[in-house]
């Protein structure tokens, strides 16, 4: 009987010992106690931690690398988190901590990432910049959760609804008619522009052809100019250009002398013209007086009796000459001694 009772006491003690060990192991497992010193601790500084709680996972590049071990209020309103990370995990070059919800059921996590991978949100970047400090403490910030995004989306939906109401009020029947009229005018303007572009395209084609012709002429002129330049170069090398220049200078001097002589001749012609004008004026005056019958010439010109006497005198002279030819001895008496 004594042996049986000792056996029962042993079994009870062993059971209690095993239960105690299991309970201690379970508590240590639930608390994720670091019995072998396989973790290292990193401090995080942030203004707010959102819904982060003790034991929430710490993720690096999508892989769980530790957990949140403590959350405490620091000085000047800062919140300090202690993260327990595995020792073989390497941090990014410029590590920052993003606190965000990991699911729709209120679970949160701390994500360690590089500062270049921070979302382009002005508030988040400002919070990271503000939380930076000297030392090994990492800056942290809270990303907007689903509730905040839903609130923002609701506010945006309300704003869109207000804008839609205002647009509906603005676009009444008259506005719709004006809009249709504007569209019709725009269609007419487009047609006019199309016709104009078609006409201008034809003109542009002609202009392009003219430009090509002009370019060909320019090329020909350039070729001729090159040939002339070559000739001038060859003439310069043989001294012909200097001879041409000298001849041109001599011709210029002779042309200058000729121009001087022409100026003198022009002066003489001017004086002669003046004299001729004076003679013409005098002749005109003489003819005018003769036509009026003034003077001897006027009487001779305007007296018909003088014309008749002159005519009879000419007839008598003719008859006298005829008679002299017929009877020369009557008028000429020649004696030879």
Strand order of the largest sheet: 1-4-3-2-6-5-7
Mean pLDDT: 77
Order of helices and strands: HEEEEEEHEHHHHHH
| Proportion in β-strands | 5-15%
Q: State the total count of DSSP E strands.
A: 7
Please tell me what the overall shape is. rod-shaped
Task: Name the structural class.
Answer: alpha/beta
Biggest sheet descriptor: 7 strands, mixed, barrel
Distance between the termini: 241 Å
Low-confidence spans: pLDDT under 50, at least 5 residues?
none
Rounded to the nearest angstrom, the radius of gyration is: 66 Å
Helix % is 55-70%
Q: Please give the count of helices.
A: 8
How would you summarize what this structure contains?
The chain is of the alpha/beta class and 337 residues long. It is 65% helix and 15% strand.
Secondary structure topology:
Elements: H1 2-31, E1 39-46, E2 57-60, E3 63-73, E4 79-86, E5 95-101, E6 108-114, H2 122-131, E7 138-142, H3 146-170, H4 173-238, H5 240-292, H6 295-302, H7 304-326, H8 328-331
Parallel strand pairs: 1-7, 2-6, 5-7
Antiparallel strand pairs: 1-4, 2-3, 3-4, 5-6
Which features characterize this protein?
single chain; 337 residues; alpha/beta; seven-stranded mixed barrel; 8 helices; 7 strands; 65% helix; 15% strand
């Amino acid at each position: 009987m004594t042996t049986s009772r000792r056996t029962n006491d042993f079994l009870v003690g062993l059971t209690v010992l095993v239960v105690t060990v299991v309970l201690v192991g379970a508590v240590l497992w639930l608390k994720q106690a670091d019995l072998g010193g396989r973790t290292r601790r990193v401090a995080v500084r942030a203004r707010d931690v959102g819904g982060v709680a003790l034991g929430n996972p710490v993720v690096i590049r999508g892989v769980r690398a530790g957990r949140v071990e403590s959350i405490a209020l620091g000085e000047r309103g800062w919140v300090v988190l202690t993260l327990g990370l595995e020792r073989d995990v390497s941090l990014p070059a410029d590590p920052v901590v993003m606190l965000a919800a990991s699911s729709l059921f209120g679970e949160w996590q701390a994500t360690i990432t590089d500062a270049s991978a921070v979302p382009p949100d002005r508030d988040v970047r400002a919070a990271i910049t503000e939380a930076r400090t000297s030392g090994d403490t990492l800056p942290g910030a809270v990303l907007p959760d689903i509730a905040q995004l839903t609130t923002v989306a609701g506010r945006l939906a309300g704003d869109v609804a207000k804008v839609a109401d205002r647009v509906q009020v603005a676009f009444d029947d008259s506005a719709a008619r004006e809009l249709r009229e504007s569209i019709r005018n725009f269609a007419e303007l487009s047609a006019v522009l199309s016709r104009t572009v078609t006409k201008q395209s034809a003109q542009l084609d002609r202009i392009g052809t003219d430009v090509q012709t002009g370019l060909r002429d320019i090329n020909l002129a350039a070729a001729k100019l090159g040939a002339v330049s070559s000739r001038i170069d060859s003439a310069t090398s043989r001294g012909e250009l200097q001879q041409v220049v000298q001849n041109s200078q001599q011709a210029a001097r002779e042309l200058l002398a000729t121009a001087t002589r022409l100026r003198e001749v022009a002066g003489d012609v001017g004086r002669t013209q003046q004299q001729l004008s004076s003679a013409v004026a005098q002749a005109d005056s003489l003819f005018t007086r003769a036509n009026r019958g003034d003077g001897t010439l006027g009487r001779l010109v305007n007296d018909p009796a003088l014309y008749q006497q002159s005519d009879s005198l000419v007839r008598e002279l003719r008859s006298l000459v005829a008679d002299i030819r017929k009877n020369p001895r009557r008028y000429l008496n020649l004696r030879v001694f």
